[in-house]
Amino acid sequence: MPVNLIVGAQWGDEGKAKIIDYLSKNIDFVARCQGGANAGHTVVFDNQKFILHLIPSGILYSHTICLIGNGVVFDVKKFFEETENLNSKGIDTKGRILVSPNAHLVLPYHKLQDEFEEEKSKIGTTKRGIGPTYTDKVSRKGIRVRDLLDAEIFRQKVRANAQTKAKIFKALYRNDFDEDLTSFVDEFLALGEKLKPYVADTIYFLNEKINENKNILIEGAQGALLDVDFGTYPFVTSSNPTSGGAVTGLGIPPWKIQKVTGIFKAYLTRVGNGPFPSEMETEIGEKIRQKGNEFGSTTGRPRRCGWFDAVAGKFSVMINGITDVALTKLDILDGLDKVKICVAYEFEGRKITNFDSELKILEKCKPIYEELDGWKESTESAKSFSDLPKNAQKFIERLSELVGAKVSIISISPDRKGTFEV
Ligand code: IMO
Ligand code: MG
């Protein structure tokens, strides 16, 4: 299983890190390919909880080498906060993380811009500066990790960008911000010095390892419905969390990816604004939120909860080329009389079975549900598919049939131990 790509198949927070962690025990390399510190990847083991935003979750096993690819937007301060936190919990990071020199830097003015823009656009971003950093990248004004290693270039590029941004911020947003948008430069240059040993050509490195047949996991962040091309635009993130993002975000050939594991939660959550056809009624939504601890691990915001949406799920399988499904948080549905799966939408008297990111449709359509009998038994102690209550098995089989991919992994508790293969 040389390259296995792990993608979020819904609106993020599907439990990607838990599955990465589960699979990492047989893995040599784990690479992040897109997104930045907007991700919140949680792993629990030995009663310890780790939340990673930038460093691949594979770091939690001592034998893995982790890569941060060119497609990631890199927050150098968060990076060191994270390494220090890991070190303090006994996880050694020395010599185990490689950062691409081509990754774009998230700078303080990007976060400020994210905050300003958010006041108007109300996307519900994480305010981690993700959108503005990718915007600068695409408009060819971005500053990359490699620039941070050369003080003169860094100073000069920051100065040029800061001047333009100050004018724009003043004209469009407000004039009570600290006009010197360059005040972070010295602090960042010092971090750049510290970063030098981590910077390496991740593109050649990873391709070599692929050719040596090493076992590699690619850790996607966010999810298909947040994809800037395929998601519920403009209520999306600014990268491609779908499969294509792994190819461009790491510089590897598409045909070297043998397996695409799509992570689905047994229900649905969304944090931030935007349409959500299968959003649950208040009471059941609140129950699932509490039981599933559905609060953002990056921002702490309550997540909106909904029923599994097979229309969106099938679309996600198609655009990602998902070969295997990992189904997480099945246990949260234990004890319900009925469980629902959204199988189509109804819009202006029409039945829609293809996912369409048109907001007018998604905001106004009515979900058409298939209702299945729930299961009263707890799934907690299950170690295999056959241990699961019969109705839970039926739910999984139906879900798999509807999205068109086999379910290969099931997770039934937050702990490392609560995952098994089908
Ligand atoms: P993981 O990797 C869930 C959402 C934000 C917002 C939109 C845009 O943990 O699954 P951004 O800050 O990226 O510009 O915000 O995307 N979002 C996520 N939602 N999980 C994530 O990451 C997310 N990363 C961004 O809430 O709606
Ligand atoms: Mg998350």
What structural keywords apply?
422 residues; alpha/beta; Adenylosuccinate Synthetase, Chain A, domain 1; Adenylosuccinate Synthetase, subunit A, domain 2; Adenylosuccinate Synthetase, Chain A, domain 3; 3 domains; nine-stranded mixed sheet; four-stranded mixed sheet; 13 helices; 19 strands; globular; binds magnesium ion
Notes on the structure:
The protein is α/β, with parallel strands linked by helices. It has three domains: 3-100 and 199-261, 3-Layer(aba) Sandwich (Adenylosuccinate Synthetase, Chain A, domain 1), CATH 3.40.440.10; 104-194, Adenylosuccinate Synthetase, subunit A, domain 2, CATH 1.10.300; 264-421, Adenylosuccinate Synthetase, Chain A, domain 3. It has 13 helices and 19 strands. It has helices at 16-23, 76-88, 108-121, 130-138, 145-148, 151-172, 185-195, 202-211, 243-250, 282-291, 310-320, 359-364, 390-403; strands spanning 3-8, 29-32, 41-45, 48-52, 65-68, 73-74, 97-99, 104-105, 216-219, 259-265, 268-270, 304-306, 308-309, 324-328, 338-347, 350-352, 366-373, 406-411, 419-421. It has a nine-stranded mixed β-sheet with strand order 7-5-2-9-1-10-14-18-19, sandwiched between helices. Strands 13, 15, 16 and 17 form a four-stranded mixed β-sheet that branches. Strands 3-4 form a two-stranded antiparallel sheet. α3 packs across α4 (130-138). The chain starts with a strand and ends with a strand. The model has no long low-confidence stretch (mean pLDDT 96). 6-O-phosphoryl inosine monophosphate binds next to α4. Residues 8, 12-13, 38-41, 123-126, 128, 130-131, 221-223, 226, 237-238, 271-272 line the site of 6-O-phosphoryl inosine monophosphate (IMO).
